[in-house]
Amino acid sequence: MTDDLAWVADAWRGASPSATDLYITCARGLSPQQLAERMADHEPVEVGPALTIQEAHRMVDLAEIYCVGRIGQSGDWSFIVECVGSEGWTLDPAVSRGAEVLILDPRPDDPPSFFTYLADGEVQLHFELGFGYDPAGAQPDLLRPALEAAGVIPPEDCIDVLLGEDEELSPAEEKRRVLKAAGEYFGLSLPRQAIENGQLPTVVTRTSPPSSW
After folding, report:
1. Cis omega (within 30 of 0) on the bond before 154?
2. How many CB atoms lie within 10 A of CB 33?
3. What is the overall mean pLDDT for the chain?
4. Edge to edge, what strands does the sheet with 50-51 contain?
């Protein structure tokens, strides 16, 4: 069973599992192992036993293992959910050559969180979550119609404010609506129960500290 992406925004705010264990990267056109291989800082990338998010977290020793991912498939999309850290915001767009890649990075220690869409080796769309909408990339207006329909941003030709002051969206609600709309646009949903409470195959993605540390 899969869910829309709004739950990710809710989980980032929760305490169990924490946002530090929910760095999510998804790919269409790559298998889960291929995605892990493109993201990892070492070769070969070996797929380990299926573990819970808590068990994967405990693998990180900050000596030889810095980030551990749990991999899976949801429809056309492969996904990897990393614990403790991720290259997220500095991930080389080349990982998307011949494929599409979506990055949902909570950045709990250095907000805001963000959404990035990579395709064919380029950043197509990038924007911060919960702090208004200021997109960048080769296709900055890609999600605009979907976000207008979701009530996140006003139509470009509308001079009136979207909501009255008493109805302004909170950052948390904005994140929920953005991620839900993005998931619907890209045909991506992720299985919350499996990710938060189930066991998924593991891969070590970082054997050295991410450059963001």
Report:
1. no
2. 16
3. 91
4. 50-51, 200-206, 67-74, 77-83, 23-28, 100-105, 114-119, 122-128
- Extended beta strands in 93-141, E state: 100-105, 114-119, 122-128
d(CA 76, CA 188): 8
152-156: average pLDDT: 85
Q: How far apart are CA 25 and CA 105, in angstroms?
A: 8
Percent of the chain scoring above 70 in pLDDT? 93
Cα 166 from chain centroid (whole Å): 30
Cβ atoms of 138 and 123 closer than 8 Å = yes
Q: Which CB contacts under 8 angstroms, 24+ apart, belong to 54-63?
A: 54/17, 55/199, 56/21, 56/83, 56/202, 57/17, 57/21, 57/83, 57/84, 59/83, 59/202, 59/204, 60/84
Please give the Cα distance from 114 to 129 (Å, whole number): 5
Torsion angle defined by CA atoms of residues 205, 208, 210 and 211, in that order, rounded to the nearest 10 degrees: -140
- Read out DSSP for 159-207? -S-SS-GGGPPPHHHHHHHHHHHHHHHHT--B-HHHHHHS-EEEEEEES
Q: Which residue has the tokens 């767009």?
A: 93
Q: In the structure, what pLDDT confidence band is assigned to residue 1 with cuts at 50, 70 and 90?
A: very low
User: Which token pair is 42?
Assistant: 């070492």
What is the per-residue pLDDT across 160-212, written as a single tens digit (0 to 9) for each?
Answer: 554 454 467 888 899 999 999 999 999 999 999 999 999 999 999 999 988 77
**How many C-beta neighbours within 10 Å does residue 62 have?**
10
